Amino acid sequence: MVGKFIIKSGELIPIEKATMSLGNIEYAYGFGVYETIKLQNDIIYFAKDHVERLIKSAEQIGLVHRFIASKLLEELNLLISKNGISSANIKMLLIGAEDLQDVELFIFMLNPLYPSKKLYSEGASVITIEYERLFPKAKTLNMLGSYLAFKKAKNSNCYDALFVDKNGNITEGTRTNFFTMKEKTIFSPPEEKVLGGITRKTLLYVARKNNFKVIEREIPRKDIAKYDGAFLTTSISSKIIPVRKIDDFDFKEISLDLKLLSDSYSQFFKNCGGKFDEK
């Protein structure tokens, strides 16, 4: 963590006083939800969208709490102001409890992590792993499957691992959204099967604005060779990450259409001021 302060359930406190009960069975069982928000050069990116998704994730797993979106947005700004940090990743961690008053929400700052520049120019290697997340549309603390898959990817010198469902379809990465391309058509797994990523939403908006066709459909692992390319998005990066290799299959090159989309999205991110309005 970075900074001198965190916010615990609405109260600004010194970081050394950020404690949690070891007897909290809900935390031990992963009964909680979280968000990671990008702060770069004093701009909070898509804060309202992240806070809204945090609350929706809680609803999906039946986590009842007393926190209000508008108040959480105020607390984000307070934390940034008190810590005096201009660039960081801000984590919001909501942990359930049997008693409503024992539900806790932590907001704290972490050092920003950015993919290497080499990934953007040369593309990433990824592996596939058969796994389906419980509550795929919620960002929950039930992360053991994702942790083990990501660890396997790292041990294989890969950037991420892509999940494959019981029908052989690729859904998403452990911490990324996944897309394929064929000329100027972008294919995305069905929204009901993946976490509705905020970066995913903005990316598809930019794609449509730049005359790309967007189709949501299953992406079978066995059909990867039929596409011109693939790419990833993540909330901690303002850029598209091209995929160069999936398991043993190599894409020949990063297509010009993918480079065009990447440039368009980077330009959108640069000019959006941290806010998104589909209108």
Automatic annotation (TrEMBL):
Protein name: Aminotransferase class IV
CDD domains xref list: PLPDE_IV
Single annotated GO MF: catalytic activity
Species this chain originates from: Candidatus Giovannonibacteria bacterium RIFCSPHIGHO2_02_43_16
The family this protein is said to belong to: Belongs to the class-IV pyridoxal-phosphate-dependent aminotransferase family.
Cellular component, GO annotation: cytosol
GO biological process terms, semicolon-separated: carboxylic acid biosynthetic process
Species lineage: Bacteria, Candidatus Giovannoniibacteriota
